[in-house]
Design brief:
- The chain contains 4 helices and 12 strands.
- A 5-stranded mixed sheet has the order 3-2-1-11-12, covered by helices on one side. Strands 4-5-8-10-9 form a 5-stranded mixed sheet, with no helix packed on it.
- It has one domain: Purple Acid Phosphatase, chain A, domain 2 (4-Layer Sandwich), CATH 3.60.21.
- With 169 residues, it is α/β, with parallel strands linked by helices.
- It has helices at residues 19-26, 40-46, 62-67, 97-104; strands at residues 4-10, 30-33, 51-54, 71-76, 79-84, 88-89, 92-93, 108-110, 117-122, 127-132, 143-152, 155-165.
């Protein structure tokens, strides 16, 4: 278990990767991708940046689904983490998610899909819900967003939202 882990959290690249994303990911120990990767080349570009943890999303094809699971449960920086693409948001979680959150009680639940940035402590299961929004250029969102933070003894520190206009490349 790593004592202090710096994380870049992103989702919904939809096949888009650029130098800005890679710049913020490259300073991190781990890169978490919460699905809708869009192209295996996105994962290949992120791999040299740090330990890559990724799940597939609803738009992902066979190559990404072969490389990534639908759900990923892991421990790092003292935190138990569950990552999946379609998770919903508090209090309206996707079907079957809330009972598993209450049973497993991860410190952090990560999802994507909505293209809406949300970080929220949730009392109903006692953890932190994190959705980094969408860092790709496809979709309805006006801002491209990702998160960076540190995990220390299971707690999130130094949380930072990285944001660009969607058309800014």
């Amino acid at each position: 278990m790593n004592a202090n882990v710096k994380v870049a959290l992103l989702s919904d690249t939809h096949g888009h990767i650029d130098d800005r994303i890679l710049h913020h990911a490259s300073g991190c120990d781990e890169i978490w991708h919460a699905g809708d990767v869009g192209d295996i080349k996105v994962l290949e570009a992120l791999e040299p940046c740090g330990t890559l943890r990724a799940v597939f999303g609803n738009i992902d094809g066979r190559d990404v689904r072969h490389a990534c699971p639908e759900h990923l449960h892991f421990q790092t920086g003292g935190a138990q983490v569950w990552m999946t693409h379609i998770g919903g948001r508090p209090p309206r979680y996707a079907k079957g998610i809330l009972p598993q959150l209450r049973e497993r009680r991860p410190n952090i639940f990560v999802c994507g899909h909505s293209h809406i940035l949300l970080v929220q402590a949730v009392g109903s299961w006692g953890g932190l819900h994190m959705n980094p929004g969408a860092v790709g250029i496809s979709g309805f969102h006006r801002k491209r967003t990702m998160l960076t933070f540190s995990l220390q003894q299971g707690q999130v520190h130094d949380l930072r939202v990285v944001e660009w206009d969607r058309n800014q490349r």
